[in-house]
Each structure stands twice: as structure tokens, then as C-alpha cells.
Design brief:
The complex is a heterodimer of chains A (128) and B (429).
Chain A lengths: L3 E5 L2 H6 L4 E3 L4 H13 L22 E5 L7 H16 L10 H20 L8
Parallel strand pairs in A: 1-2
Antiparallel strand pairs in A: 1-3
Helix pairs in contact in A: 2-3
Chain B lengths: L1 E8 L2 E4 L4 E3 L2 E4 L1 H9 L5 E9 L5 E4 L1 E5 L2 E5 L18 E7 L1 E6 L10 E2 L3 H5 L6 E9 L5 H21 L8 E6 L3 H7 L5 E9 L5 E5 L2 E2 L6 E3 L1 H5 L3 E5 L9 H5 L2 H9 L5 E10 L3 H18 L3 E5 L6 H13 L4 E8 L20 E6 L3 E4 L4 E4 L21 E4 L21
Parallel strand pairs in B: 1-9, 2-4, 6-24, 10-12, 14-19, 14-20, 20-21, 21-22
Antiparallel strand pairs in B: 1-13, 3-4, 5-12, 6-11, 7-10, 8-9, 15-16, 15-18, 17-19, 23-25
Helix pairs in contact in B: 1-3, 8-9
Classes of the chains: A mainly alpha (128), B alpha/beta (429).
Chain lengths: 128, 429
């Protein structure tokens, strides 16, 4: 059983990494909140929550990789996820629900590619 | 490595029956350039070529890359090693540059888009590429080409177009020749023993699709930091596949003309001893960031640098790489100066970066990417004007009925370039 997991609202992530992905239905803000809650429960961030230069208010999709092992609170992870939430708050809201289906598909592909980069570079201690 | 850069100043660009440079005019055989850009790539359906001159009422969007036409006339290797040339080490010999000309690629790779170049008006002030004579290459792929391949197709077409145009400068006597040289480390240190040894940590965006950068053709996310002679960059050792965040990505043109490298060479032998560059990446996982910053700091220590310039590329998570590089180098007793840009909100009041460090006490900003600008309509739009509404930094209704665009300056190619390649700047006198 994998000792990492993915919080994501990207259906492509859930399709490709079905057993590891906790698929949320909300916005990136909810993905960040779920990741923050996991950090408080002792998970560590494996991928950076602001991966990619696509702005978090622009992409409707976000996937974050965390360690499954519940250990002591990792303050570095907490700082990174809290800072990411602050970045999201300061950017103006965009009505991503009005994007065309083709745009949604493209944002999903970009997010999946960033996730694939993280999975390809998974530290040795983590496994499927 | 010693490289002579021979600049042929281009003062106009025109279509003609044959591609040539004569009396400062770049004449372009439109069909031949389109064919050269397409190459043998069967994934390309069509290539169209347009010209855009400074001051014209022209808007180009979405811009994928900007590339400068160059040709190697002496010395090993060719321009853009790993792509349009073999992988011989470049950075020595002689290279001719069509200075003032640029290839601008446009393509609709994904449904959301990046990059505006206006050739006149307020937008032109924000992009350095309003001052270049632009050869716009619009690449249409075959139907149903997937996003990954589409990006590759547009990138390679731009490089081929720049190489084709660069060839026109092979036998032209340059208007100006500059010589750049960094010697092997021990020789270089001995040459100016009393000057502080300065190195450059050159961070490259390397996260995935539309976020990649290449060094001699290799995807930089797959390397550990390595040493680069500064002149290698002038021959196209670094190629951009980074199409996201138009304001602060480094187009290939900027890698070829890095102001950081140019300015360090301007002081080389006078106030500093410029000993070389460390090329490093900005990857997705935190372990990669730790590893790469450890390696970059180790290399800087090994080189014996007294001070280091560190430049960032992109938004958000690279702030973490910047901070790690800064901390680990400063903790070796080596001074750092950081170059970044800011996302401080439209009112400029928010925290600018996603990470920070007290050791980052010397920092140069390239501007606030969230500043709002209104770009008036242009008579001519090359590319895909309908994408203005879905451009990063724009928002719903960004594109008005009259064709004007109201958006943050992050929509403009090069507006807050983190190598400092700008038209708007403040300089000490």
C-alpha cells in the first residue's frame, strides 16, 4: 500500500492514480484546505503547493502530493501551504466555471503533467 | 572560452524574393522561411509568416517564444545545440547576430493563453520586443495533435526559423564585434587575483508541460546543477519551452542576450572577476529543490566565489528555490544578490513573494506583475485575437467590444523579466 497520497480536484489525476488520490469536487482553495488539514494531522508536503507558473486563481485544477505517515507536525510544510493559501487569497477571483470544456481539459492536462513530474521524482522512501 | 559576437544592426525587415541582409535591411523570402520553419515536420499543417515593425499598429498574441537569428561562423558547434545543431560544446569562436531582428512564434497550444506584444501604444512600453523587427511565425499543427507535441512543434519551428534567418548574416561584415571571455577557473582566478570572484546562479523553470527549459537539448529538470561558461548561453545552449507566465518567463531571445551575463562581463576585469555560471532548475518536489540548491551551493563554494548573483524564473514555487539557494550560499559566507519580480496584488500591498529569508538582504525587483494596464485596440492582430479573454492575468471581460484589453501586465511578454531585460527601468548614473 502506498505511503503517500494525492489531494486533487483533477479527474485526470484520480483516473491515473486511482488508489492514491483523494478526489475533491471543489476549487483549488478546497484542495489547499485539505492539504493544510493533512499537514496538521502529520503529513509532509512532497510537492510544492504552488507548482507551475499557472496562477492558482487561473487554473481550476490543483493536485498536491503528501506523505501518508502521520508524524509530528512539519512546520516547513505548514508554512508552505499557509503561504500558498495567502497567495490564492490575494489574487482576484476568476470565474473558472465559465471556461469552455476544451479549456478545462487543457488545465487538467497541465495539472496532471505537474503531478507526473512530482511522481517521477518521488523520494526513495515513498512507494506505491 | 572566448567568443566574438559580431552584431549586424537590422533597421528594417521586408519581404523579398530571396532572404538576405543588405545595408541593415533583413529581406525575407516568405515562402522559403515558412518552409524552413516547417522543416520536415509532418505534424505541421501550415506555417504563416508576418512582419511587425516598431511603431506599427500591430498586436501579436499569444506569443510562445521569441528567438534571435544567429549563426556560428567560426568555432565548434552550431546555434541551439541539441535542437538545430549537434551537441558539441558551444561558446567559443565567432557568432554573427542579426541584432534588432526577432522571430516571434505564435500558436494556440492550449485553451488558455499567454503573451502579448504590442508594437505601439502603452503596451509597447512594457515589452522589449516592441523595439525589434519581428518576423512572426504562426504555426498551425495537424488536427488533434496533443498539447505536449504541439508545444514541441511550435518550439522547434521557431528555432529552425531563427537559424534560417541567421544564415543570412553568415557572410555579412558585422557593424560591431564584442569579445567575451571566461577562462578555465584556475587561469581566470589568476588573471585578476585582486578582484572579487563573482559567479552567477542561473535558475531555470523546469516543471512540466509548458514549463520546461532545455540545456543542450536536455530537459533541465532531469539534470543536477552544472557549470556553464557564460558564453555558451550566447550560442543558444539554453532554449526556452516555457510558455506560461508571459511577463517573467525567459524567452530564448533573453537567454541569448542575458543582461545579467552582459553586465557581469561589462565589469569583468574592472571591478569583478566573472568566473562563470551555475545552471540550476526549479522542480516540483521539495526534495528536488533541496537537492538542487545543495548542489548549486556546493558548486559555488567549490568555485571559490566571493559573491553570487541569483536570478529566478517564474511565479510561486520558484520563490522557494530562490530562498534555498540564497540561504545555502550565504551560509558559506558568500554574498548574494537576488533578482526576482513581484506579485504584490493589483494595489501593490500584498506580500510579493511566496517565500522569504532574512539572508536575502540584497534583492533587485523587476516589477509588480499584478499592475493593471489597458491596451487600446490595434489595427492588425497577428495570431489568435479571440484568446485575449482567456489570457493569464486577464479576467472575464478583459477583451472589450472595441478590441481593447484591460489586464495585469503579466499578460505582456517580458514585462517583468527576471533577468532584467526591460524597456522600463531605473538606472544609477
Amino acid at each position: 500500500m502506498a505511503n503517500f497520497f494525492i489531494v486533487s480536484n483533477n479527474p485526470l489525476a484520480a483516473e491515473k492514480y486511482a488508489a492514491q488520490t483523494q478526489l475533491l469536487t471543489g476549487s483549488p482553495a478546497e484542495v489547499y484546505r485539505a492539504a493544510r488539514d493533512a499537514v496538521h494531522r502529520g503529513s509532509r508536503l512532497i510537492s510544492h503547493p504552488l507548482a507551475g507558473s499557472v496562477k492558482p486563481n487561473e487554473t481550476p485544477y490543483r493536485s498536491i502530493v503528501l506523505s501518508a505517515a502521520g508524524g509530528v507536525l512539519d512546520f516547513r510544510s505548514l508554512q508552505l501551504i499557509e503561504d500558498a493559501i495567502l497567495v490564492l487569497k490575494k489574487l482576484p477571483q476568476r470565474h473558472t466555471e465559465q471556461y469552455t470544456p476544451a479549456m478545462h481539459a487543457d488545465y487538467q492536462v497541465i495539472d496532471l503533467d505537474l503531478l507526473d513530474s512530482a511522481i517521477a521524482a518521488l523520494p526513495a522512501e515513498f512507494h506505491f | 572560452m572566448r567568443l566574438e559576437i559580431g552584431s549586424i544592426f537590422i533597421r528594417d525587415v521586408q519581404f523579398a524574393d530571396a532572404t538576405a541582409v543588405k545595408d541593415g535591411v533583413l529581406y525575407v523570402d516568405r515562402a522559403a522561411l515558412a518552409a524552413a520553419a516547417a522543416g520536415e515536420d509532418e505534424r505541421i499543417k501550415s506555417v504563416e509568416v508576418f512582419l511587425a515593425r516598431p511603431g506599427e499598429s500591430v498586436r501579436i498574441l499569444p506569443v510562445k517564444d521569441v528567438v534571435e537569428p544567429r549563426v556560428k561562423v567560426a568555432g565548434p558547434g552550431g546555434i541551439f545545440p541539441g535542437f538545430t545543431s549537434n551537441v558539441e560544446q558551444v561558446g567559443s569562436g565567432r557568432t554573427h547576430v542579426l541584432k534588432g531582428a526577432a522571430v516571434v512564434t505564435t500558436g494556440k497550444i492550449v485553451g488558455f493563453q499567454e503573451g502579448i506584444i504590442d508594437m505601439q501604444g502603452p503596451g509597447a512600453e512594457y515589452t522589449p520586443f516592441s523595439k525589434t523587427y519581428n518576423v512572426v511565425v504562426k504555426v498551425e499543427p495537424i488536427d488533434s495533435l496533443k498539447q505536449h507535441e504541439h508545444e514541441v512543434v511550435v518550439r522547434l519551428a521557431g528555432l529552425r526559423a531563427a537559424k534560417y534567418l541567421g544564415e543570412a548574416g553568415r557572410d555579412v561584415e558585422p557593424d560591431e564585434v564584442r569579445v567575451y571571455e571566461t577562462k578555465p577557473l584556475l587561469e581566470q582566478v589568476a588573471e585578476y587575483p585582486n578582484l572579487p570572484k563573482v559567479a552567477y546562479v542561473y535558475m531555470l523553470q523546469t516543471q512540466g508541460l509548458l514549463h520546461n527549459t532545455y540545456y543542450y537539448g536536455v530537459d533541465v529538470k532531469q539534470i543536477v546543477p552544472t557549470f556553464m561558461y557564460p558564453t555558451e548561453a550566447m550560442d543558444g545552449a539554453i532554449v526556452s519551452g516555457n510558455c506560461v507566465s508571459a511577463c517573467d518567463k525567459n524567452p530564448t531571445y533573453v537567454h541569448l542576450n542575458s543582461p545579467v551575463i552582459e553586465d557581469l562581463y561589462a565589469q569583468h576585469g574592472k571591478t569583478i572577476n566573472f568566473i562563470g555560471c551555475v545552471v540550476t532548475n526549479e522542480n516540483v518536489t521539495l526534495m528536488d529543490k533541496e537537492r538542487s540548491s545543495n548542489m548549486a551551493a556546493k558548486l559555488i563554494g567549490f568555485l571559490g566565489a566571493d559573491a553570487v548573483i541569483i536570478s529566478e524564473e517564474g511565479f510561486g514555487n520558484p520563490d522557494a528555490d530562490l530562498v534555498m539557494n540564497c540561504n545555502k550560499i550565504e551560509k558559506q559566507g558568500i554574498k548574494t544578490v537576488l533578482i526576482t519580480d513581484e506579485y504584490a496584488g493589483q494595489d501593490g500591498a500584498s506580500q510579493s513573494l511566496a517565500d522569504s529569508t532574512p539572508l536575502g538582504n540584497a534583492c533587485v525587483t523587476a516589477g509588480n506583475a499584478n499592475e493593471v494596464v489597458t491596451l487600446p485596440p490595434m489595427e492588425q492582430v497577428y495570431g489568435y485575437p479571440e484568446v485575449a479573454n482567456v489570457i493569464a492575468g486577464g479576467w472575464d471581460g478583459s477583451l472589450a467590444a472595441d478590441g481593447s484589453i484591460t489586464a495585469e501586465i503579466q499578460v505582456i511578454t517580458g514585462a517583468t523579466n527576471e533577468l532584467g531585460f526591460h524597456k522600463l527601468t531605473a538606472r544609477g548614473i
